[in-house]
Design a protein that fits this description.
The complex is a heterodimer. By secondary structure, chain A is of the alpha/beta class. Chain A folds into three domains: about 90 residues, Four Helix Bundle (Hemerythrin (Met), subunit A); about 200 residues, P-loop containing nucleotide triphosphate hydrolases (Rossmann fold), CATH 3.40.50; about 130 residues, 434 Repressor (Amino-terminal Domain). Chain A is built from 21 helices and eight strands. In chain A, helix 10 runs parallel beside helix 11 and helix 20 packs across helix 21. By secondary structure, chain B is an alpha/beta fold. In chain B, about 50% of the residues lie in helices and about 15% in strands. Chain B has an eight-stranded mixed β-sheet, with helices on both faces. In chain B, helix 5 packs antiparallel against helix 12, helix 8 packs parallel to helix 9 and helix 10 runs parallel beside helix 11. The mean pLDDT of chain B is about 85. The chains are: A alpha/beta, B alpha/beta. Chains A and B meet through helix 1, helix 2, helix 3, helix 7 and helix 16 of A and helix 3, helix 7 and helix 10 of B.
């Protein structure tokens, strides 16, 4: 767990607490909270001008009646901010539109290393799965082996790839690809381009010539989620030269907060069409503004997690879980069950990455698939009594458990310590009246 | 340093020298400064990716300096001192304690798309110019055409290229690569790795393993573990440094895409929070577009 983010999560949790403790808020209290929230946004790489606007708007709305007379003023301020962010990000997910012309032309542009080539392959697969017949092509003659990379990606996804090695100009490639698509009955041409910096005018002009020479139905800016304050200038420059129609946000599987995308959308109004969430070709997903809003605010991708887990949970388990939470104690048996369910939901990595930072810290000690199995073995080597009442586990019991599970006493000790941590967390959540993985209340699913 | 390179080198800090210095100068000469004006200065510094905390610190010190100031106080001197204190003379040099004429290794790591492969190529060229016998080892057995990309760079740099099969265990590839370097009596092995998300535990474990292989092969002073960072990265750069530093003993940083005019405030923050020296700056796609980061010159250029 990253220290900086951990501190922030704590700080943020502090803001929540401060706001939650009060029944009603004064203007001064709102201001104080907003000062902290400003920092949260800046640390998330939201551009400072966008932060300023956002804070001003929220202040205007929060210091008004809405908050002061609201029943839960605490949640209102954050909710207003979250709402504002969500609205800026699009209010609702916007699907990629493929016009009914054959072929439709899509252009991918962006900085070096933003992930254009990989995204091009992913987008091809994405369209193929929706019963389109895409053909991939690349105008990148500068990066060594760039076209080779796209060719390999295309073939591994069973996609058509078009190349014109003799072309002297990017436009030639696109024109030939379009002819090729028409002849072969392909309905979308995906054009990958060479990465370029937003300060390289010559290269931007080259792109402009491309967009002037051919009619592209979508010009998509591929944006790295880890981009910093410079993002806004990147967008401005690309707008000047090629005027993109939307964004594909990449590297969303990192722990970057992705404030850059908020900055750009606030500035340009471009919709975010899709997001890249991994290196594999099927890891391209539809964008959800409300999830990104939570993420930028450091609440983790709580909604995605909930969705994913709800799919894996059966109705019966849910009932059991609900009963469980009303129980007084959280036992090692419950712990084991939770762990097993988590494993079914997806890889441990996936889960961890979606949790809010503060919770991730506590859980990361449980660490990885391998130790999950060892953990399971340890718990299974305990007697029923021990699982329900770990307090009775003394030194000789520990030795027996270690032997039985093929682990060491140290590992047994560590598990018991971790369990104690999680039990505390569980109690905290219970107080917040939220079921940790089954149900949520508002978007503060994890009892911040 | 060659003139064209120096120019591009300065380009990156163009806006620090411009906007911020102009602002400092104005505020310094003003009789009184309104709170909003201080806030604006802070925002300007944050806009240079210096980070909210450090920005606040600089503004606060400047403010105090101004309050105490008399005619003879020079804020330029203060700024120079403040900034230069981040770095140490000569810290950008690679292998300060290495045995000459024996094998050394540079291990390049970083997240996807920061420019590791390009940097590997440029570094190979630079080292060869300095008389090293270089082999480029591609431990990226995952990304499509990564091997081909590095091989082209190897050809450009005029050095030997070593690769493993697609999908092979990177640690095994590196082991074989280093073996071959010993046999060929080469003096520098540059190891390029697959980009990886710094939150993916399996990939981090793989990185750790490759690093272990290298360290078993060569003594500590013969190895540099360099993290490649994108100058356009925001606060997440710190998460990257922190989680990668946990699995490999990083000895420095290479900042790429410096010519993007990203203002590079990130340099100071990385130096301050992680104590890692910046070794090189990447300033373009050409083979010569990698320049040693000489901190004192850099700061002088900012302040003067």
């Amino acid at each position: 767990m990253d220290r900086v983010f951990e501190q922030l999560a704590e700080k943020f949790a502090g803001v929540f607490k401060k706001l939650r403790g009060k029944g009603r808020l004064t203007a001064e209290e709102v201001d104080e909270a907003l000062r902290d929230l400003r920092l949260v946004l800046l640390e998330s790489d939201v551009h400072y001008r966008v932060v300023k606007d956002l804070i001003a708007r929220v202040r205007e709305r929060a210091v008004g009646r809405e908050v002061l007379e609201s029943v839960t003023p605490a949640e209102m301020v954050i909710k207003i901010l979250w709402d504002e962010i969500r609205q800026i990000l699009g209010g609702g997910a916007k699907d990629l539109h493929v016009p009914p012309v054959t072929p439709a032309l899509f252009l991918l542009v962006g900085l070096q290393g933003s992930g254009k080539t990989t995204t091009c392959g992913k987008l091809g697969l994405f369209l193929k799965q929706r019963h389109y017949l895409p053909v991939l092509t690349s105008t990148d003659t500068r990066r060594p082996a760039a076209r080779e990379q796209l060719r390999i990606l295309a073939s591994s996804a069973g996609l058509d790839f078009f190349d014109l090695p003799s072309a002297r100009h990017p436009l030639e490639v696109v024109q030939a690809a379009r002819r090729y698509a028409r002849e072969k009955g392909r309905d979308v041409v995906l054009v990958d381009t060479a990465g370029r910096l937003h300060v390289e005018e010559e290269l931007l002009r080259e792109l402009q010539e491309l967009t002037r020479g051919e009619e592209f139905h979508e010009t998509l800016l591929v944006l790295d989620a880890t981009t910093g304050q410079e993002a806004i200038r990147v967008a401005e420059r690309f707008r000047e030269w090629v005027n993109p129609t939307g964004i594909i946000l990449t590297k969303v599987d990192t722990d970057a907060r992705g404030g850059a995308v908020l900055s750009i959308v606030a500035q340009t109004g471009w919709p975010v069409k899709l997001i890249g969430v991994g290196e594999k070709l099927d890891q391209l997903e539809v964008f959800h503004p409300e999830r990104m809003a939570s993420r930028i605010l450091g609440m983790g991708d709580t909604l995605s997690l909930i969705e994913k887990i709800e799919r894996a949970i059966t109705e019966e388990e849910r009932k059991k879980l609900e009963k469980q939470v009303t129980k007084e104690e959280f036992t090692l048996e419950d712990f084991l069950e939770e762990l097993r369910r988590l494993r079914r939901v997806g890889s441990f990595e996936d889960i961890m990455n979606m949790l809010p930072a503060s919770l991730r810290g506590a859980l990361s000690q449980v660490d990885g698939e391998r130790s999950l199995k060892r953990t399971e073995a340890i718990i299974l080597s305990m007697t029923r009594e021990e699982r329900r009442n770990p307090g009775i586990i003394n030194a000789s019991r520990k030795r027996r458990i270690a032997q039985g599970s093929g682990t060491t006493v140290q590992e047994v000790n560590r598990l018991l310590r971790e369990f104690e941590e999680i039990r505390k967390l569980w109690k905290k959540m219970k107080k917040g009246h939220t079921l940790p993985f089954a149900k949520r209340k508002g978007f503060f699913g994890f009892g911040f | 340093m060659e003139k064209g390179l120096w120019k591009r080198w300065l380009q990156g800090i163009g806006r620090i020298t411009g906007e911020v210095k102009e602002r400092l100068k104005e505020l310094w000469s003003q009789k009184s400064v309104r709170p909003e004006e201080w806030e604006e200065l802070e925002e300007m510094l944050i806009g240079a990716d210096i980070g909210p905390a450090l920005a606040a610190e600089i503004v606060e010190e400047f403010r105090r300096l101004k309050e105490r100031s008399r005619e003879d106080t020079s804020w330029e001197e203060w700024l120079y001192g403040k900034l230069v204190a981040f770095f140490e003379e000569g810290e950008h040099l690679l292998f300060p304690r290495a045995q000459p004429e024996t094998l050394k290794a540079v291990f390049l790591v970083g997240i996807n798309g920061v420019g590791k492969t390009t940097t590997a190529g440029k570094l190979a060229y630079l080292a060869r110019e300095k008389g090293e016998r270089v082999v480029l080892i591609s431990a990226d057995t995952f990304r499509a055409a990564a091997n081909e990309q590095l091989e082209i760079w190897a050809r450009r740099a005029g050095c030997r290229f070593f690769r493993g099969a697609q999908g092979a265990d990177p640690a095994a590839v590196v082991y074989d690569g280093l073996q071959s370097a010993l046999k060929e009596k080469e003096t520098l092995a540059i190891v390029d790795t697959a980009g990886r998300s710094h939150v993916n535990r399996n990939l981090l474990a793989e990185l750790e393993k490759v690093s272990r292989v290298i360290r078993r092969f060569l003594p500590e002073e013969q190895v540099e573990h360099l993290l490649v960072l994108d100058a356009l990265a925001g606060q997440n750069a710190f998460a990257q440094v922190e989680s990668i530093a946990r699995v490999v003993p990083l000895t420095g940083i290479i900042l790429t895409k410096w010519d993007s005019q990203a203002k590079g405030g990130i340099l100071f923050r990385v130096r301050k929070e992680f104590g890692l020296p910046v070794k090189y700056l990447g300033v373009g796609e050409g083979i010569e577009d990698l320049i040693p980061f000489e901190a004192c010159e850099f700061v002088r250029a900012i302040v003067s």
